[in-house]
Amino acid sequence: METVYLETTIASYLVARPSSAPLVAAKQAITREWWELRRPLFACFVSEAVLQEAAQGDIAQAARRLAALRGIPKLQATVEAEHLAEAFLEAALPERAAIDAAHLSIATVCGAKYLLTWNCAHLANAQILDRLEPIALRRGFALPRVCTPEELMGESNDVH
What we know:
This protein is of the alpha/beta class. About 55% of the residues lie in helices and about 10% in strands. It contains eight helices and five strands, in the order βααβααβααβαβα. A five-stranded parallel β-sheet has the order 3-2-1-4-5. Helix 1 (about 10-15) packs across helix 2 and helix 1 runs parallel beside helix 3. The two termini are about 20 Å apart.
């Protein structure tokens, strides 16, 4: 079974109140569809970084995010992952993206096949990933495929 690291934005879009903004509403719908139809086909994981981030903000929304993530196995942030995150920050990510570096490094060191996210600023960003990939490779790791739920929907006949 292929492995997926669920970054915090997945839980956020999954449980958020319906948005009146068309793009956000579409992302919410795609996330819900992926969660219901595709998630059971993968071994999904989170990390303590995901749970800490999900617990922030509006108390009711945080409770919904954490409830959605309950029972999903947690990957551990190793010293190796911490060092890789630091290298990612030095090379291509701004300091404010430290949590994003942590997500990517944990997923990388733990060997996740995919990192699922709606964060296109720092994670699902081809130019940034191009700069981070050689860093991971020099340390003996391959980056996971970073993608959105829309990209991990599978073939159309798999879903319907």
